Amino acid sequence: MSTPSTTALPDGGLRSPGAGLITLDPVHTALLRGLDDLLTGLAARLSAPEVLGPPLLSVEGLARLDFFRNFPHLGVSAGRFDADALDGLAAGETPGELGLRPTGHLLPSATCYGLLLSLEGRDVGEDGLRLSATGRCFRNETHYDGLRRLWGFHVREVLYLGTKQGAVEHLEQGAEFIRQAAASLGLELSRAVADDPFYDKGGSRAKLMALDPVKHEFSAPDGTAIASVNRHRNFFGERLDIRAGSEGPAYSACVAFGVERWVHAMILTHGSPEQALGRLREARLRGVDG
Fold first, then answer.
1. Superkingdom, according to UniProt (predicted)?
2. Terminal CA-to-CA distance of the chain, rounded, Å?
3. Which helix (H) or strand (E) holds 57?
């Protein structure tokens, strides 16, 4: 099997067909794929099998997880054209002038939502359950900024459900892996409590996070958050009736990596996509612990 080319496109760089939308050239694509492969090392370390989440999430399911109470501004809805618009489309009418009908589904804004919803009513046992997945995620934003802030992007997550202590250990191991991965790639990251984009900053969830932070972010020198460790308590376990044996509602936690943002951080640190790709290849030869 031949090795895919990583030669830059003739006019070079990233191609943007619209705000928040980017087509990666071969070099950037190789960097993104290689970084995602390296970041799956956490999944291997924690024996978290790879799964593939659903491409759409039900509005009803997200409502039960308080998504719309907390992030109504981020949701990207999936629609279909009304039946009476089909003749117009076939005749060449402008799609933007024809009616769309809601489907009752949103595009995912985070990888873990689909995985959690698929586990509703399950008992993961006291030994717990770990899963790993990369998903294409979508969020409406007030502005977009290259690879730092996109309308659609990839998020690698390693999810845990089980006991309270198991969730703590999952996040500790995840944070250590982030530090090791960053060191192997030559990245300097800072850790801080996250400031999530809650719609109502004075709402109960935002206030609770301020009093008891459940999310910490790891950021590049320019302030771009490229990874996070997230403690869900037993919120999803209670809402979705996911149990951990005799422990009751499962506690959950996830470690998340914004893959395009890792690409951004690598180029920021190493100066060019080609140099960043070279450093990534060296890191993969050595291994994260090298």
1. Bacteria
2. 29
3. strand 57-58
User: Could you tell me which of 268, 267, 264, 287 has the C-alpha nearest to residue 276?
Assistant: 267
Residues 126-150: pLDDT tens digits? 999 999 999 999 999 989 999 999 9
Query: Residue 261 in contact with residue 146, Cβ under 8 Å?
Result: no
pLDDT score for 13: 58
- In a 3-state reduction of DSSP, which class is residue 154? strand
Residues comprising the chain, all counted: 290
According to the model, what pLDDT value does residue 213 have? 56
E runs forming strands in 186-267: 190-193, 215-219, 225-231, 251-258
Domains of the chain: 15-55+109-286 (3.30.930.10)
The H or E element that residue 21 is part of is: strand 21-23
* Residue 25 to residue 33: CA distance in whole angstroms: 12
Sign of the CA dihedral running 245, 247, 250, 254: negative
For tokens 């996250």, name the residue: 194
Considering just the CA atoms, what is the radius of gyration of the chain in Å?
20
Antiparallel, parallel or unpaired: β 76-81 and 190-193 = unpaired
CA dist 114 and 231 (Å) reads 17
Position 112, amino acid: C
Q: Which two tokens stand for residue 4?
A: 């895919």
Residues 139, 260: contact at Cβ < 8 Å?
no
Among 169, 233, 168, 228, residue whose Cα is nearest residue 205: 233
pLDDT along the chain (290 residues), means of 10: 47 67 93 96 95 96 92 90 83 78 94 96 96 96 92 97 96 97 97 66 51 79 96 93 96 96 97 96 81
pLDDT of 279 reads 97
The span from the CA of 178 to the CA of 227, in Å, is 8
* Structural tokens at position 107: 């595009």
